[in-house]
TrEMBL record, chain A:
Family named by the database record: Belongs to the binding-protein-dependent transport system permease family.
Cellular component annotations (GO), alphabetically ordered: plasma membrane
Keywords: Cell membrane, Membrane, Transmembrane, Transmembrane helix, Transport
Protein name: Sugar ABC transporter permease
Domain of life, source organism: Bacteria
Gene Ontology biological-process annotations: transmembrane transport
Ranges that cross the membrane: 32-56, 83-113, 125-146, 175-203, 224-246, 285-306
Coiled coil location: none
Membrane topology type: Multi-pass membrane protein
InterPro entries: MetI-like, MetI-like_sf
Subcellular location: Cell membrane
Domain ABC transmembrane type-1 residue range list: 88-304
Pfam families listed in its UniProt record: BPD_transp_1 (PF00528)
Automatic annotation (TrEMBL), chain B:
Protein known as: sn-glycerol-3-phosphate ABC transporter ATP-binding protein UgpC
Membrane topology field: Peripheral membrane protein
Alphabetized Pfam families for the sequence: ABC_tran (PF00005), OB_MalK (PF17912), TOBE (PF03459)
Organism: Bradyrhizobium hipponense
Subcellular location: Cell inner membrane
């Protein structure tokens, strides 16, 4: 009896899992395996080009010639380059004015399209048209619209007797800036409008009814209900809008190539001109890299703006 | 507080008329429940009263004022919505004070009134919370608080309890009734649940397909339903209906399907041989030797009572007994309806025949 009680039970032989089996079956490692393809893509298509760009900005690489590390010489050179600073100014002006107007017009359109009106579905589809036309195509159209000789605007105004000679839309520095900003707004508004419309449609109609019964005028309904409930989506859509506008290239390149006298040169177009056309890869890369702090700043602002509002937090999800 | 008069109100959406001339007088301080199946137009009527829908024809007046063309915010009414419609970005206190803020009330005044309403509804500890952080019952109370703060002429409730679980619904029912007894504000309450209607109302309005089927106190509707629809709608489990004929010669009798004979206290005038629908509530059956033979199908004890499903003349009927009979499926029993509380309806029109 005592023997039986004391005798150790014969344990089934548990074989230690080999390291390879652990790698195959451990949940954490399994997650890692699944992430590997995505990581591969990100490293190859995002991290590597970005890293290469930054590296190039510290070299004097030219097309057809391997460069040497020259530390910050490219940046020092740019620091004293008035055209670079002009392009920074242009980019900031372009981004700020275009984004602000895109927001205002987009919000207005979204509110309009959210109302009940005839042909609503068709109007919504029409708003998207500028978005689906290829950028270069619309830029070419604008190029003609703003042509110095054949501009339809000049033609119309002349026939109305309002002006006596053609407006030099893309040849005058101020006009050129106005024109490219206008074209950018035309292209960018649909994105803002449709995204904000999607946001508006998540607001329960009963909130408006409750507010109406509470005595709110239509302005007060916007001010106290619509706007606060829309802020999270506004933050998202404006971040994207700012990033896209800041890095815009196609529209400018197709319409003005940065002219006249660099008045519409953005950092992206200047970078392209210096790096690809002039062949100074190092300098072009430095201009591109100089955009990073601005973009990071924009992302940081929206990051903090995007932090979930207190009212969105809660234990229960309805 | 005010009376409300709804006179011959019609509502059409395009060519489709959903309300066909509804008239409901509501006295000052009364708790009126509009009840009916979904699609009967009760919510539409409430929204017309609130000013959220136009009135196609007829008039609605609150107090002495016809409000057909009065803006919702000037009607001095407060509404509690089915989904509560709390502003998610405002705290409980801000939600409740919003209407006062819009009317430019001083912050002292707002605080005072919000605090008072919060005390009435036991919401004081929650004033700083956001709606997401509240339970269903608490949100419901905030929605009521928002209405109370305004001290309106009329409270409107649009199926306010349908998003709550069964237990909470019963508790809130009592709470709303208690609140009404305390504030005595005229209240119009819409529901599809006849139990809610029966338990809360001073006056029930049964609606069906855009018309008023019957108006009256809960017990009037229970005891003397004017037609077969009301009879079937009010009461749970629902009234049993059997089709057949009246025999007025000698002892008044109802002849049901497959030769079932059930006693009547008296036959309605000139009704011999008339096709009728015989209605008896489940709770008005007794077991008696002179009852009609029925075969038990299913027995459902609930503790306080026992529901028995049985075949009577081939038709399934429900009987409810408070006594604890021993029944088994397949047993034959003799069911006898209490002749003093049975109902006879015209088979064609569904109108009540006996008085």
């Amino acid at each position: 009896m005592a023997d039986i009680a004391v005798a150790p039970r014969a344990k089934p032989q548990l074989r230690e899992a080999t390291a390879w089996e652990q790698l195959r079956h451990n949940r954490n490692w399994l997650g890692f395996w699944f992430m590997l393809p995505a990581m591969g893509f990100l490293i190859f298509f995002l991290a590597y080009p970005l890293g290469l760009g930054i590296w190039l900005s510290f070299t004097d690489t030219r097309i057809g010639r391997v460069g040497h590390f020259i530390a910050t010489e490219n940046y020092e050179w740019l620091w004293d380059d008035s055209i670079f600073w002009l392009s920074v100014f242009n980019t900031l002006l372009y981004t700020f004015v275009a984004s602000a107007l895109k927001f205002a017009i987009g919000l207005y359109l979204a509110l309009l399209l959210n109302e009940n009106m005839p042909f609503k579905a068709m109007l919504r589809a029409m708003v998207l048209i500028p978005f689906i036309v290829p950028t270069v195509l619309s830029a070419l159209a604008f190029w003609w619209i703003f042509d110095s000789q054949f501009s339809i605007i000049s033609w119309s105004l002349k026939h109305l007797g309002l002006i006596s000679q053609n407006i030099n839309f893309l040849g005058d520095t101020t006009w050129a800036r106005i024109c490219v900003i206008f074209a950018n707004i035309w292209r960018g508004v649909p994105f803002v409008a449709i995204t904000l419309l999607a946001g508006l449609q998540t607001v329960s109609p009963s909130l408006y009814e409750a507010a109406t019964l509470d005595g709110a005028s239509s302005w007060q309904r916007f001010r106290y209900i619509t706007y606060p409930l829309l802020t999270p989506i506004i933050a998202v859509v404006m971040t994207f809008s700012v990033l896209f506008t800041f890095t815009d290239f196609q529209l400018i390149w197709a319409m003005t190539r940065g002219g006249p006298v660099n008045a519409t040169h953005l950092m992206a177009t200047l970078s392209y001109q210096r790096a690809i056309i002039a062949g100074q890869l190092g300098e072009g890369a430095a201009i591109s890299s100089a955009m990073i702090p601005f973009l990071l700043a924009a992302i940081m602002i929206s990051w903090f703006g995007l932090q979930r509002r207190k009212w969105q937090q809660g234990e229960s999800n309805d | 507080m005010s009376s409300v008069q709804i006179r011959d109100v019609r509502k059409s959406f395009g060519n489709f008329e959903v309300l066909h001339g509804v008239s409901i007088p509501i006295e000052d301080g009364q708790f009126v429940v509009l009840v009916g199946p979904s699609g009967c137009g009760k919510s539409t009527l409430l929204r017309m009263l609130a000013g959220l829908e136009n009135i196609t024809s007829g008039t609605i007046s609150i107090g002495d004022r016809v409000v057909n063309n009065v803006q919702p915010k000037e009607r001095d009414i407060a509404m509690v919505f089915q989904n509560y419609a709390l502003y998610p970005h405002m705290t409980v206190g801000e939600n409740m004070g919003f209407s006062l803020k819009l009317r430019n009330a001083s912050s002292d005044e707002i605080n005072k009134r919000v605090k008072r309403a919060a005390e009435i509804l036991a919401l004081s500890p929650l004033l700083e919370r956001y709606p997401r952080q509240l339970s269903g019952g608490q949100r419901q109370r905030v929605a009521m608080g928002r209405a109370i703060v305004r001290d309106p002429q009329v409270f409107l409730f649009d199926e306010p309890l349908s998003n709550l679980d069964a237990k909470l619904r019963v508790a809130m029912r009592t709470e709303i009734k208690e609140l009404h007894q305390r504030l005595k504000t005229t209240t119009v309450y819409v529901t599809h649940d006849q139990i809610e209607a029966m338990t809360m109302a001073d006056k029930i309005v049964v609606m069906h397909d855009g018309i008023v089927e019957q108006m009256g106190t809960p017990l009037e509707l229970y005891d003397k339903p004017e037609n077969q629809f009301v009879a079937g709608f009010i009461g749970s489990p629902a009234m049993n209906f059997l089709k057949g004929h009246v025999r007025a010669n000698g002892v008044a009798t109802f002849e049901g399907p497959n030769g079932v004979k059930l006693p009547l206290r008296s036959a309605p005038a000139a009704s011999d041989g008339r096709p009728v629908v015989f209605g008896v509530r489940p709770e008005h059956f007794t077991i008696a030797d002179d009852g009609a033979e029925a075969e038990i199908v299913v027995v459902e004890p609930t503790g306080s009572e026992t529901q028995v499903f049985a075949k009577l003349g081939g038709e399934q009927v429900v009987a409810v007994f408070r006594e604890r009979h021993q029944f088994n499926p397949g047993d034959k029993v003799r069911l006898k309806p209490d002749p003093s509380v049975v109902h006879l309806f015209d088979e064609a029109t569904g109108k009540r025949l006996n008085t």
